[in-house]
Amino acid sequence: MRSPPQHAAIELEDLATSPSERLLRWGAAEPLLSPSDSRVGSPPETTTAPGFVKSRAARLLSKLRTESEPGLTNAQLMLTNHDLRPVEAQRRQWTAWSFVAFWIADAFNINTWMIASTMLTSGLAWWHALICILIGYSISAMLVCLTGRIGATYHISFPVVSRASFGIWGSLWPVFNRAAMACVWYGVQAWIGGQCITLMIRSIWPSFYTLHNSIPHSGTNTRDFVGFFIFWVASLPAIWLPVHKIRYLFVVKSYFVPVAGLSLFAWAVGRAHGMGPIVTKPATASGSTLAREWLVGIMSAIANFATVIVNNPDFSRFARTPRDAFWTQFFTIPIGFVVTSFVGIVVSSSSKVIYGTAIWNPLDLLSQFLLDDATSAERFGVFIIALAFALAQLGTNIAANSVSAGTDMAALLPKYLNIRRGGYICAIVGLCMCPWNLLKSSNHFTTYLSAYSVFLSSIAGVIICDYYLVRKGYYSLRNLYSARAGSPYYYHLGISWRAYTSYICGVLINIVGFAGAIGAKVPIGANYIYRVDFFAGFLVSSIVYYLLCWLKPVPATSSVWCEKGDEADNRFSVINPLLGEGLDEEMSTEITRTDGRAGSEKVMEDEDK
Fold first, then answer.
1. For the segment 397-433, what is each residue's pLDDT rounded down to a tens digit?
2. What are the domain boundaries of the chain?
3. Which of 133, 110, 75, 207 is nearest to 445 (CA)?
4. For residue 270, which phi and psi values (nearest 5 degrees)?
5. Pick the CATH number of 91-441 from 1.10.4160.10, 1.10.287.70, 3.40.50.300, 1.10.260.40
6. Quick one: which of 179, 271, 441, 603 is 20 to 30 A from 556 by CA?
7. Could you read off the pLDDT of 521-562 as tens digits, one per residue?
């Protein structure tokens, strides 16, 4: 067995010394701060140009700095702030029922109805579509639980989780990827929410439907843009809420929105005097075409969840225990989305009886109700249902998009950005990206989703393989915030070549097929692979990563299952290793696991004693 490095030997000696002596020894081995800055709370020394400190720009930058542990160096300020630290016990307020409410509320959104309709228009029978949705969201739920357990155990967010596998600085690219996807989804969901606002206004003032279009060359019209902008502005106060308090929004949403959706279901079935012809119509596709559409349907369901799969630690880190974030998500996700899709299919089928054509978008159906000389009672019903859908879009945008993008941006520039500021940047990007262009064609939107899920699937493959197969649940928590060259997650210049090699392999396996999906002529085999794009990217990246770690092992691993989540307490300190419960365990575990299997077994024996 290799002899431990110099700082490891010093740390092992620390276990038999007093706390004050251990602090001195730690600083002598590899200090995180210079000797003059070793006191916790003292600001780091910086050099600035003469006169700059007194300038207006310097004062502005000083005011914009986020809350962080005092005494951090510039490198440490690039790795942590209050929103990136492990969640302390006081903010771990999400119970099992919080996650149930979260997913029930999230399932009843308009995008779920649109995903199901795409499958039926491709030639599947209604029950084929439901099975595809069940399979797709069950797979998604399993992956969500795998990533969510990491956050629920160590109480850290996705940007910090990704540092273990991609490296301290290498994690910035996956974080940027996920932030970009969240911004795109924010704009899309805000646009759909704006259509809800438009319906609410029309139910009060029917003349709003014929509002003059003063922006004819924009790709949209004044009426719809006004609704979108009102929804966008109304969402801004919700971004201000702390993440651990958002659960109250979902409790309200989980009661109000499903009731409104079921009311629309009953209303449509009542007017059609039944569930319509779609539920009795057989599949129009057959043979290999039918099999292909099954795969496309399953993949579209998973692609719809690609962002949530990697960002689940952003929410699960607020769970009281890992159990609270596991079984509730595992069962609630597929059940909730299947029920919502079934309601959407039946409502669309009923609309074919009422209007002679199937109306897949529930907002279009509500709009048609208003065009049929609706009574005041019917207009009131449209207003309430549209309000419920607007609330659904608001909750989805805040939880799945603005919080995720805010967390990622806080990791990209933690010195000046936190979750709240990042959320507002996400909202601005969502406004500027003109999301109505993405929703002009369901085929274009599905192709876009599949394309970006390729990148996210490769990220998820590396992270899940690293945590469950390579490290077996062990993280050295404090080193996830350390940019020291000797840190186990620093790798080479802060970047893990194993993770990036695996990530690129996962992307390349699908890149040719993606070219074929947008019209290029490619080999038929590439098209077959691209039909299972998420699986291909996930499996290839995870297998390559595992093989590379087997050929050249990474440090800080365990040969037996060993999660050390109890180290994430409210006294966690980036600077001072003595300010944390279970410190001696963390030191001993980290060092021995760096040296391989024998050390791991020794630590487990010591802990058993």
1. 888 789 989 999 999 999 899 999 999 999 999 999 8
2. 91-441
3. 110
4. -65, -45
5. 1.10.4160.10
6. 179
7. 888 888 888 888 889 999 999 999 999 999 999 999 998 998
Q: How far apart are CA 474 and CA 497, in angstroms?
A: 20
Q: Report the greatest alpha carbon distance in the chain.
A: 84
CA dist 143 and 366 (Å) reads 35
Q: How far is CA 72 from CA 41, 379, 483, in A?
A: 8, 59, 12
What would the DSSP string read from start to end of 102-124?
HHHHHHSSHHHHHHHHHHHHTT-
CB–CB of 129/116 below 8 Å?
yes
Structure tokens belonging to residue 371: 């065009």
Phi/psi at 94 (5° precision): -85, 115
Q: What is the pLDDT of residues 227-250, one digit of tens each?
A: 999 999 999 999 998 888 888 888
Phi, psi dihedrals of residue 495, rounded to the nearest 5°: -125, 135
Identify the CA nearest to 141 among candidates 171, 170, 99, 175: 99
**Cβ contacts of 421 within 8 Å, gap of 6 or more:** 66, 406, 409, 410
The Cα–Cα gap between 341 and 67 comes to 43
DSSP 373: T
| Angle (deg, nearest 10), helices 110-121 and 172-204 | 100
Contact present, 425 and 182 (Cβ < 8 Å): no
Q: For residue 312, give the amino acid letter.
A: N
C-alpha–C-alpha distance, residues 24 and 37, integer Å: 13
Distance CA 347, CA 352 (A): 9
Average pLDDT over residues 110-115: 78
Confidence tier at 599 by pLDDT (50, 70, 90): very low
Three-state helix/strand/coil letters over 183-219: HHHHHHHHHHHHHHHHHHHHHHCHHHHHCCCCCCCCC
User: DSSP per residue over 48-62, as a string?
Assistant: --TTTTTSHHHHHHH
Q: Which residues contact 13 (CB under 8 A, 6 or more apart)?
A: 25
Closest residue by Cα to residue 137 from 528, 513, 454, 534? 534
Nearest to 112 by CA among 362, 328, 430: 362
Residue 87, SS3 per DSSP: coil
pLDDT band at 64 (very low <50, low <70, confident <90, very high): confident
- What are the residues whose beta carbons fall under 8 Å from the beta carbon of 211, sequence distance 6 or more? 221, 222, 223, 226
Q: By the 8 A CB rule, do 582 and 496 touch? A: no
Measure the N-to-C terminal CA separation of the chain; round to a whole number of Å: 24
Report the C-alpha gap between 461 and 509 in whole angstroms: 14
- Cβ-based neighbour number of residue 553 at 10 Å: 13
**Cβ atoms within 10 Å of 121's Cβ, excluding its own:** 13
Q: Is 78 helix (H, G, I), strand (E, B) or coil?
A: coil
**How far apart are alpha carbons 203 and 205 in whole angstroms?**
6
Q: Is 94 helix (H, G, I), strand (E, B) or coil?
A: strand
